[in-house]
């Protein structure tokens, strides 16, 4: 299995930007589809974005389309989430994961420990 470690979370005012990183261990990182999820206080974890092994297929939740961009660098075993025009409702713990498709959505397989993002109004 691949081990995942997120970084880059923090506090930002509404309208600001943050870039999350997820470093993966293991030589097989490029064989995984990877994604980001988030969990707000008192809510269930929800899908944010996913990117296929080759990077050709990208998927976003409707709530972040046009604001967030997922990217990956297979040579560096890293996946990123660039978050722009942040809103208070983007606040939560963000998790990196290897994912697989399930119906019209994505499910996580291996998870990182999460990084906190707080957006103030």
Structural description of this entry:
The protein has no helices and eleven strands. By secondary structure, it is mainly beta. A hairpin with a 6-residue loop joins strand 5 and strand 6. It is globular.
Secondary-structure map:
Blueprint: E1 3-7, E2 10-13, E3 18-25, E4 33-39, E5 46-51, E6 58-60, E7 68-73, E8 78-83, E9 92-102, E10 105-111, E11 115-120
Parallel strand pairs: 2-11
Antiparallel strand pairs: 1-3, 3-8, 4-5, 4-9, 5-6, 7-8, 9-10, 9-11
Q: Kindly report the oligomeric state of this protein.
A: single chain
Radius of gyration: 13 Å
Structural class: mainly beta
Terminal CA distance reads 39 Å
Binned strand content: over 45%
Largest sheet features: 7 strands, mixed
Contiguous helical run count = 0
Mean pLDDT score, rounded?
95
Share of residues in helices: under 10%
Element order: H for helix, E for strand: EEEEEEEEEEE
Number of strands: 11
Question: Which descriptor suits the 3D outline?
Answer: globular
Contiguous uncertain segments of 5+ residues: none
